[in-house]
From TrEMBL:
It comes from Mucilaginibacter gotjawali. CDD domains: nitrilases_CHs. Gene3D superfamilies: Carbon-nitrogen hydrolase (3.60.110.10). This is Nitrilase. Keywords: Hydrolase. The keyword Cell membrane does not apply. Belongs to the carbon-nitrogen hydrolase superfamily. Nitrilase family. Coiled coil: none annotated. Its EC number is 3.5.5.1.
Length: 318
């Protein structure tokens, strides 16, 4: 089996809070990545249709705020509905281009009533099927004013050539037990999705790589003040309180020795392409394997519940 893998990291801005236009832009980058020989392309956290940067700029914690209510309703209408086929175009392109896609999106989850939003990521296999959907297990700080708490159902991995690929959203990557759940499934290519900041990626990427002896890809979005559309609710308020860069990227790759393969890239929209080799993982696992020869399951074990959470279980009579 070929041990090398070419990957594309799409560090791009969304057409902020516009699902259809953002999807078109992402599909174009997928096509570009495939044409460059990539077998995997990855996108940042919540890129489709965008991260809720407005919360900290509009007094988001004010209870019963008409501004927050209007923005939440707008965001909900732009969120992804799986049952409505909002990811179908990505599945089609994955199959046509024979490329795996990992993307961050906002999910309007029908299995939880259809009115709450989840920060989700999708792993779309190269055959066009959705391998799994992962809902962020714990939104961070002000994100909890917008996103619901996810579950463990998506703590899964997938095979891509010689690699075993897993992914987490943003500060989930700081959760040791959640990381360990992927390590134990043989993960050796870890994808960390971020909304966009070099301060988020410059330390943890190398740390996870050295801890897991895996390749770690941090993929970030970007957002500039100029990307805030004038037609959005409270656009003037959001823009008036914004710095020139709300998210400046920071996408990067660390090797299984913890050293940079691609150093963090800031303040630029770019498709980053590189080739990595799984043989390097095997070399670094020689002296440390966190779920293999350097683990002690007789002393410490981890229990993970991967059931999709549902409020009601109906038992219907025929």
């Amino acid at each position: 089996m070929e041990s090398a893998l070419t990957i594309g990291i799409a560090q791009i801005a969304p057409v902020w809070l516009n699902r259809e236009e953002t999807a078109k832009k992402m599909l174009a980058y997928i096509s570009d990545a495939a044409n460059e020989g990539c077998r995997l392309v990855v996108f940042g956290e919540a890129l489709l249709p965008g991260y809720p940067f407005w919360v900290e700029l509009t007094n988001g914690a004010l209870f019963n705020s008409p501004v927050q209510k209007e923005l939440y309703a707008y965001y909900s209408r732009q969120a992804v509905s799986l049952s409505s086929g909002d990811l179908d175009s990505f599945c089609k392109q994955a199959k046509e281009k024979k490329i795996m896609i990992i993307l961050g999106f906002i999910e309007r989850a029908e299995d939880r009533g259809g009115h709450s939003l989840y920060c989700s990521l999708a792993n779309i296999d190269a055959d066009g099927s959705i391998g799994y959907i992962h809902r962020k297990v714990m939104p961070t700080y002000e994100e909890r004013l917008v996103w619901a708490i996810g579950d463990g159902h998506g703590l899964q991995v997938s095979k891509l050539g010689a690699f075993t690929v897993g992914a987490l959203n943003c500060w989930e990557n700081w959760m040791p037990l959640i990381r360990s759940s992927l390590y134990a499934q043989g993960e050796d290519l870890h994808i960390a999705l971020w909304p966009g900041s070099t301060r988020n990626t410059e330390d943890i990427t190398r740390f996870i790589a050295q801890e897991s002896r895996s390749f770690v890809v941090s993929v970030s979005g970007i957002l500039r003040k100029q990307d805030i559309g004038a037609d959005l609710p409270s656009s003037a308020l959001i823009s008036g309180n914004s710095e020139p860069w709300l998210g400046n990227g920071g996408s990067c790759i660390a090797g299984p020795d913890g050293k940079w393969v691609v150093a963090p890239l800031g303040n630029e929209e770019k498709l980053i392409i590189t080739t990595i080799d799984q043989a390097r993982v095997m070399e670094e696992r020689q002296n440390f394997d966190p779920s293999g020869h350097y683990s002690r399951p007789d002393i410490a074990q981890l229990s993970i519940t991967r059931e999709r959470q549902r409020l009601v279980k109906f038992t219907d009579k025929d």
